């Protein structure tokens, strides 16, 4: 297993990346920004690790956010100025809303082969399998989570 002290920099978000993901956050929308993030898959291939799809319903209800002017806010974010506006609990806006319920679901792990120097095609193949597994988990569990009409947007 990968310990927190052993995670390569390539697997951690680049400075500002978390803010960019936060800009994409929109109440009542299910979005995940993994379409172009393949570093974890490459690392897992190099070491033969398992990748486990996990999805949490309810995270989009933990904070109210301003979701307008998204393209402008993403452009401003590239300059290093974060353009994220949010608030949570009425009594302390930096705390998440107390009425939000988060339900996390864990899918079946994908066992990746050990490939010391994976090709782009191999990384793409296993990345696609992971995304398919995440989508399947979402679709299987959305009704149980109380959101039968929910759609997962993979960005």
**Helicity, in percent?**
25-40%
The number of distinct helices, counting runs of at least 4 residues, comes to: 4
Strand content: 5-15%
Please list the strands of the largest sheet in the order they lie side by side: 1-8
Q: Based on DSSP secondary structure assignment, what is the total number of beta strands? A: 8
Structure description:
Strands 1-8 form a two-stranded parallel sheet. The longest helix has 22 residues. The chain is globular, with a radius of gyration of 17 Å. α1 packs antiparallel against α3. The protein has 4 helices and 8 strands. With 155 residues, the chain is α+β, with helices and mostly antiparallel strands.
Pick out its properties.
155 residues; alpha+beta; two-stranded parallel ribbon; two-stranded antiparallel sheet; 4 helices; 14% strand; globular; disordered N terminus
Helix and strand arrangement:
Layout: H1 17-24, E1 30-32, H2 39-47, E2 50-51, E3 54-57, E4 64-65, H3 70-77, E5 86-87, E6 103-106, E7 110-111, H4 120-141, E8 152-154
Parallel strand pairs: 1-8
Antiparallel strand pairs: 2-7, 3-6, 4-5
Helix pairs in contact: 1-3
Short summary of the structure?
The chain is α+β, with helices and mostly antiparallel strands and 155 residues long. It is built from four helices and eight strands, in the order αβαβββαβββαβ.
């Amino acid at each position: 297993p990968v310990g927190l002290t052993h995670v390569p920099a390539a697997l951690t978000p680049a400075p500002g990346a978390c803010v960019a993901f936060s800009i994409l956050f929109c109440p009542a929308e299910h979005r995940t920004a993994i379409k172009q993030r393949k570093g974890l898959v490459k690392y897992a291939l190099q070491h033969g690790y398992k990748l486990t799809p996990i999805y949490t319903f309810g995270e989009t209800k933990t904070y109210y956010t301003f979701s307008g002017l998204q393209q402008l806010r993403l452009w401003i974010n590239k300059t290093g100025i974060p353009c994220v506006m949010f608030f949570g609990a009425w009594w302390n806006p930096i705390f998440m809303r107390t009425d939000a319920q988060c339900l996390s679901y864990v899918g079946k792990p994908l066992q990746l082969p050990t490939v010391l120097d994976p090709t782009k095609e191999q990384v793409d193949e296993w990345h696609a399998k992971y995304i398919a597994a995440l989508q399947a988990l979402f679709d299987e569990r959305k009704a149980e989570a109380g959101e039968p009409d929910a759609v997962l947007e993979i960005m």
